[in-house]
Amino acid sequence: MAILAMAATGAAQQVVRVAAAADLQPVVPTSAAEYEHATGVHVVASYASSSTLATQILNGAPMDLFLSADFGFAQKVIDGGRAEDAAPVKYATGRLVLWARKDSPVLGGRPLTLEILSSPALHRLAIANAEHAPYGRAAMASLTTMHLADAVKAKLVVAENIAQAAQFADSGNADAALISLTLASSDQLRKDGSFVAMPEGSYSAIVQGAVVIRGAESAKSARAFLNYLLSPAVQRELQAMGLGRP
Fold first, then answer.
1. Are 145 and 200 in contact (CB under 8 A)?
2. Which residue, 102, 151, 127, is CA-closest to 203?
3. Could you report the per-residue pLDDT of 74-100, keeping only the tens digit for each?
4. CB-hemisphere CA count at 13 Å for 60?
5. Do the beta carbons of residue 73 and residue 51 sit within 8 Å?
6. Domain boundaries, given as residue ranges, for the chain
């Protein structure tokens, strides 16, 4: 990989602070470790909903790179004058899935299908807060398109972000959850449960956008890490972990 040529003696002390959307929790650590091995630059990630991270950055949080789960919150950082970029940089597309534990009562020992969304056996469905998390917004759009929003309204368990929504379902505090393919593809959730994709036409494309923070202490290194994420080899790795092409 071309990035290997970037390793340099002075890079060992560099740190890139990344504000990463919650769907990236299973993704960024692998890429960050590989990048540090290749360059000596240490990548430190903080995870939350895209809305929460955007607000923190606009309030002056010391971040170098923002990896949002959509274009909207990355654009908000640009509009607030906190980004070097004139437009968000597309780095991936997200996919929405329905996930449930293998022993979830709603399954009754049967394979997971989308039909459980209209089943009387479904009592609690975890989703991310649509006001704060792009995947929560996609979840509500999908349920609305499928004419299920009214039927499940009283059953919704609203989490701050999709990582928390996944935790609700994995801990048994919800029967199922609408989460990202990245989280559903993690080792833990693959072991504990199964997932099915929500119909892609039922929600708007989740185009994930990034911006380098204006005046960041490690802006140059942040740009280099973003370019690394966009490289063909890393893009193939991201796709294996549940993200689509940008």
1. no
2. 127
3. 999 999 999 999 999 999 999 999 999
4. 0
5. yes
6. 2-93+205-240, 95-202
